[in-house]
Amino acid sequence: MSKKIDISFEDEESLSTHLKRRKTRPQVKKPVVKQSYEANADVQRWLNTQTIDQKDLTKPPFAPTFLAGQRDASWILSSLSSFYEQDLITDVLHVVKSGKEATVYCCLADPLTGLEYAAAKVYRPRMFRSLRNDAVYRQGRTQRDVEGHVVRNSSHHQAAFKSQRGRAMQVSSWIEYEFQTQLHLFAAGANIPRPLAQVGNSVLMEYIGTVGEPAPLLQNVILDHEEAPALLASILNDMELFLAHNRIHGDLSAYNIVYWEGEVKIIDFAQAVDPTQSEGTFPIFLRDVERVASYFAQYNLVIDALAVATEIWTRQQGAF
């Protein structure tokens, strides 16, 4: 038989206080509502800069059906409308891939380009906060302040980009540098997608693959052992070609190489560096070689990454 627990109170006031305490519900913290990146002042300024005035349009407004209902439709539309106005694309078909910093879209290319499809890489608004490993890759690039002047001193560099306007200028310069690198290397004969245009936060290039089936990343491909040696040689040749034209990819791996119909193409040059602008960039180049070597090791293609990187670097040292 269970015992009845007797709780006694010395007076009525303490009993009343006890009952009120029992009825009081525990306080629950309200969830923090995060402000969208699109609402950021820098982002809004960027959007206003890119948005095309409807009265200046020379053709019907760009209105891809794919964007209907998309949460960030206004951001994407403002990012791609200029390509439409330049007769480079006519429609947006689907998302190719989406990452932390950018989303790539498959677009229907304008016949004037000579291509059937184009890939539009649109950087997200979060880029106004940071770019991954930004400080590391600034070492191999020419930096400019809000007036376009070269910034060489590190303390001056920090001051130059402390303001919102300065940060926006830094992001703009970063994306423009990526596109200029693509133009530079494609003209040199590198196996990369053909670059088409760059406006603001967007880069347009040749699309590799078919609609709904973009070329897979090399990381996700199981190669025939017979084709692996030629593909490894192709990638190493491109890396040397990059170096001969004063570029290091900076983030090369099987995740930044696509495979299509027996060939490979290198993509994503956001972290490319120019070895002529800074000393100490060999470790970045070596890391690229190591990552490529690591992927091909599964096909019994074992190379000494340090020896190969050193040989290529020494052979091309005269270029920088």
Would you mind describing this structure in some detail?
The structure is a single chain. The chain is α+β, with helices and mostly antiparallel strands and 320 residues long. 36% of the residues lie in helices and 16% in strands. The strands form four sheets. A five-stranded antiparallel beta sheet has the order 1-2-3-7-6, sandwiched between helices. Helix 7 (228-244) packs antiparallel against helix 8 and helix 8 (282-296) packs across helix 9. GO terms for molecular function: ATP binding; metal ion binding; protein serine/threonine kinase activity.
Q: Give the end-to-end Cα distance, rounded to a whole number of Å.
A: 92 Å
Radius of gyration: 27 Å
Provide mean pLDDT, rounded.
Answer: 80
Helix content: 25-40%
The major β-sheet equals:
5 strands, antiparallel
EC number: 2.7.11.1
Family: Belongs to the protein kinase superfamily. RIO-type Ser/Thr kinase family.
Protein name: non-specific serine/threonine protein kinase
Domain Protein kinase: 90-320
